[in-house]
Amino acid sequence: MKPYMKVSLAALAIGVGVWVGSVYSNTAIGAGTSQPGTADDPVVTKSYVDQQIQKALGGGTNTGSGNTSGSSNSGSTGTGNSGSTGGDTTLPPLVSGASDAVEIVTVKPGQQLIGASGAEFIVRSGKAVIVSEGTNGVADLTDGVDLTNGQTAPTNHLLSFPRDGRGIAVLDGNKYSLTVMVRGGYSLK
Fold first, then answer.
1. How does pLDDT run across 115-134, given as a tens digit for each residue?
2. Can you give the residue ranges of every domain in the chain?
3. What's the CA gap between 75 and 100, in Å, rounded?
């Protein structure tokens, strides 16, 4: 094949490629004509999404904006929301009737903090040991191990209590209290 034929075919191939590309480009530009925020492509707010999730979970709707002076937050225990500046910051429950409220509990030496079935503890300060009846213990979800009766409960680890009657206590001989974050039911003995 002669060199001028090669150049001519290459130029023709490039020209056809540019033409096909421009046709597809114009088609693609025309396909996305709706602007964000219009009726065709609405922009939604976090509060709207939260309302729809609440409806889907069967929890009803929150009709207030969270900024009215007469409103009260019935799902809160009063801990952790006092410094809020952005309105209602509570999340809908994951399961109907479930509570994600976290309480800070102080356990004094000689006391035991016993979790209800499904409770979760995080020991924030102090030396704690596991209190459990039988051979099964408490699940340390952070390390993925089972802690049995008498073992030290590590600080800042998420501990799950699968059944009633299991808990934590202050390590014998320690004179300082425990500070524990608790989610779920519990009792102090």
1. 888 888 888 888 888 888 87
2. 104-188
3. 9
